[in-house]
Amino acid sequence: MHNNSYLELDSTSYKNNIDFLRKHLNKDTLFSSVVKGNAYGHSIEKLVEIAFDQKVRHFSVFDSNEAWRVHQVTGGKATVLIMGWLDNEEDLPWIIENEIEFFVFEKHRLIAAALIAKKRGKKAIVHIEIETGMNRTGFNSSELKWVQEFLHKNAEYLMFKGLCTHFAGAESIANYYRIKKQIERFEEIYSQFCTKNLIPMQRHAACSAAAMMYPETQMDMVRIGIMQYGFWPSPEVLVNYYNTKRKREDPLKRVISWKSSVMSVKKVKRGEFVGYGTSFMADENMKIACVPVGYAHGYTRSLSNIGRVLINGERCVVIGTINMNMMVVDVTLLENIKRTDEVVLIGNQADKQLSVSSFSEYANLLNYELLTRLSADIPRTIK
Fold first, then answer.
1. Which end of the chain is less crowded, N or C, counting CB atoms within 10 A of the terminal residue's CB?
2. pLDDT class for 368, splitting at 50, 70, 90?
3. Closest CA to 33 of 12, 16, 54, 10
4. Would the pLDDT of 103 be above 90?
5. How many alpha carbons fall within 13 Å on the CB side of residue 71?
6. Integer distance in angstroms from the first to the last C-alpha of the chain?
7. d(CA 86, CA 93)
8. Which residues, other chains included, contact 49 with Cβ-Cβ below 8 Å and sequence gap of 6+?
9. The CATH homologous superfamily of the domain defined by 11-245
10. Backbone angles phi, psi at 6, to 5 degrees
11. Residue 37: left if φ>0, alpha if ψ -120 to 50, beta else—which one?
12. To the nearest whole number, what is the mean pLDDT of the chain?
């Protein structure tokens, strides 16, 4: 079976990014690779395999299903931390049995963890998430006394591994005051836990942006997502890096490339409309190519008439409305174009590059959103 498109993951680029990140982390700070959202569209299975080769031994995921997938790939030889969803009754027995670690941000989960750990005769490894100003998940101040008492009472069933929080937009300087308040709040609560003789093995709060913009937040562990894949959390974080390091070259390399091929080539007369509706009319005789990729694969419709692809080393514009499984490209200026010619949607061809950010800006999407929309059905290969 030949696929309509495929994603290529470059292990050398990944190594470059990990080396860069490790150089910028305090030497005692543990690196956790965040692989939620199918490893930001890269594929959990493939990315974890690449990361494991680079001696990454800690992975953070959103839910129990992702934890299971990482556990399968690593054969239990890495630490897996669930930051979000799990089903207390169904998932906790497997989680505790396999020493999967998990965030706890509400009473019900903590009670269930202690109960199931007692039944299993094995400790549940918990990370207590506290509310510091993000106002999403995390124990509020009013609940902390209860949490502390519960941890003491159930010390034989619960391992208090981590104290953690999440920052509300460290990638934007507009949130500076809010982040600084969160850092202060976290330190206060940490001290409060310590005075109650509850000292976590790990304190962690920083994502990619916080680790770069607020180095003091690196603490015992950082949870790095977007930067390991070769993308900056925002242009601001990149500019901040340039200014502090006096460098003008992006040290990160994209891990992902997305490639397809030309499905058909045909001519269109001046005055004719191309594709659905009337969003594009040929203002001259032109040549078009159909590419078998559309919004079902994650190439968003908002790139209609503005997206770019690379064919035969040239940038070509997507014209007309992007279909579910197809897009049309203007190839009038390409002399020797033919069926099966390579089409690059993300990545390099000849001396030109198309980055996710270049077309996520056209589509008014975040890097994150565009990457995670890439269909899980598209095959991924490692090179």
1. N
2. confident
3. 54
4. yes
5. 17
6. 20
7. 11
8. 73, 382
9. Alanine racemase (3.20.20.10)
10. -150, 160
11. left
12. 95
Confidence at residue 47, expressed as pLDDT on a 0 to 100 scale: 98
Give the pLDDT of residue 2: 74
CA dist., res. 259 & res. 341, Å (int): 11
Q: Count Cα atoms within 13 angstroms, Cβ side, for 339.
A: 4
> Cα–Cα distance between 38 and 35 in angstroms, integer?
6
Q: How many residues does the chain have?
A: 383
Average pLDDT of span 299-309: 91
Please tell me the distance from the alpha carbon of residue 196 to that of residue 202, in angstroms, as a whole number: 16
Above 80 in pLDDT, residue 304? yes
Residue 362 has what pLDDT? 62
Average pLDDT of 246-269?
93
What six digits make up the tokens of 157?
């069933």
8 A C-beta contact, residue 52 and residue 73: yes
The sign one gets for the Cα dihedral 349, 355, 360, 361 is negative
For the chain, the structural domain boundaries read: 11-245, 256-354
The answer to whether the CB of 148 falls within 8 A of the CB of 198 is yes
Dist. CA 18–CA 224, nearest whole Å: 10
Q: Are strands 327-330 and 314-319 parallel, antiparallel or unpaired?
A: antiparallel
Residue whose token pair is 């007309």? 320
What sign has the CA pseudo-torsion 245, 249, 255, 256? Answer: positive
- 324's enclosing H/E stretch is none
> Is the confidence at residue 222, as pLDDT, over 80?
yes
pLDDT tens digits, residue range 314-334?
Answer: 999 999 999 999 999 999 999
Q: Are strands 314-319 and 308-311 parallel, antiparallel or unpaired?
A: antiparallel
- CATH number attached to the domain at 256-354: 2.40.37.10
SS3 for 329-344 is EECCCCCCCCCCCEEE
In eight-state DSSP terms, residue 267 is E
Q: Is the pLDDT of residue 80 over 80?
A: yes
